[in-house]
Design brief:
Shape: elongated
Helix content: 40-55%
Number of helices: 15
Largest sheet: 5 strands, mixed
Structural class: alpha/beta
Order of helices and strands: HEHEEHEHEHEEHHHHHHHHEHHE
Length: 356
């Protein structure tokens, strides 16, 4: 290996990264903000999150890392500017393994055409089914935006890590120590085995906590988060609407009166998936509806959700040749969330007591 040439290359890299680091810092913040904003619209919460650009020293150490090839050492990265994928990094941490799918779905929705699949991985796939060790899901995305204030970030890469709290704790303590040595990992095999067994124990605890939470949620009538998140990407159909309404109302809902009518209404609203319908849901309204124990069909539930969300659009979409009748209890409940006196301008909306 030409030591002088290598030293020049590494020093040139350091100079480049010193000037590039602020852009990578901005890139990481941009990616994290996009993800968190999207998760908020989808009502998905996380334990904690963060973004960072590699420090200059950390990037420098990674760029000059060597590996043994035959009887000599060579630089691991011949072109570190283009081969290192984590100058910008984002971490999303959730409490339960069952919550990871929702974060992955968000990343894939947001960056569908910008994920570098060959550089992204699920660490569990690398371990295989018969081994234990570092677990985390890593996406590498390449920024591509039309927003003028962020266009200078285009083509920069950012690594997105998704983990549970326990996976993150393990990674923070051991991952750098075990896997980020400078030349070779000379860790004592007994110690390395203990570390991996600890990782396996944490994985088991993660899964058991997940099962216990699911059990208590089912007993307490709470929304089954795993089922809910899986359902969000489903297209609108009678089965998916039935499942969604039952989850939303904790089973306190009756069968459809007319699925076709409600499907036509959702089409008129431009709602094609359960996720798009969920975006219109006011959680406060649903909780009040459950608390009042009002008998309601799927049809009525979806209509009331859309009225609370956008009553002007709702009344533009329904058949105006027919009266839309609601009972007194629902009228009073709706009045807590929208101004029903204003809504009364739609003459085809009637309270039940006005139709007698």
């Amino acid at each position: 290996m030409d030591c002088d040439n290598t030293k020049v290359r590494i020093e040139n890299f350091r100079l480049w990264y010193e000037s590039a680091q602020p852009n990578y810092e901005a890139a990481a913040k941009y990616v994290l903000n996009r993800i968190l904003s999207y998760l908020k619209t989808q009502k998905v919460s996380v334990a904690y999150s963060g973004s960072r650009a590699k420090t200059i020293d950390s990037a420098y150490e990674k760029a000059k890392k060597q590996i043994k090839v035959g009887n000599r050492y060579e630089l691991k990265y011949s072109d570190p500017k283009n081969e290192i994928m984590d100058f910008a990094g984002v971490r999303i941490v959730v409490y339960l393994p069952s919550e990871i799918d929702a974060i992955c779905s968000a990343v894939e929705q947001l960056f569908v055409n910008n994920i570098r699949k060959d550089d992204s991985e699920n660490k569990a796939d690398r371990l295989g089914k018969d081994k234990v060790g570092y677990l985390s899901i890593h996406y590498v995305i390449e920024i591509n935006t039309d927003q003028p204030e962020h266009k200078h970030l285009n083509d920069l890469k950012c690594e997105i890590q998704i983990r549970t709290v326990l996976q993150d704790a393990w990674a923070q303590i051991f991952h750098d120590r075990v896997y980020k040595g400078t030349i070779e990992n000379d860790t004592n095999e007994t110690i390395e085995r203990k570390i991996n067994l600890l990782s396996g124990t944490l994985e088991l605890i993660d899964n058991q906590i997940n099962e216990i939470v699911a059990y208590y949620d089912s007993k307490n009538g709470n929304l089954d988060l795993k089922s809910y998140q899986k359902l969000l990407n489903d297209p609108i159909c009678e089965k998916s609407l039935t499942q969604y309404c039952n989850l939303l109302m904790q089973g306190k809902v009756e069968k459809f009166y007319s699925y076709e009518q409600i499907k036509n209404l959702l089409d008129a609203f431009g709602i094609k998936t359960i996720r798009e319908l969920d975006y219109h849901v006011d959680n406060g309204f649903i909780q009040e509806l459950i608390a009042k124990n009002i008998s309601i069909t799927f049809d009525r539930l979806i209509r009331y959700i859309l009225i609370v969300s956008d009553y002007n659009k709702f009344f533009d979409c329904i058949d105006k040749s027919k009266k839309f009748v609601i009972n007194e209890a629902i009228y009073e409940l709706l009045d807590q969330f929208i101004d029903m006196k204003t809504v009364s301008k739609y003459k085809f909306l009637k309270r039940e007591d006005e139709t007698n």
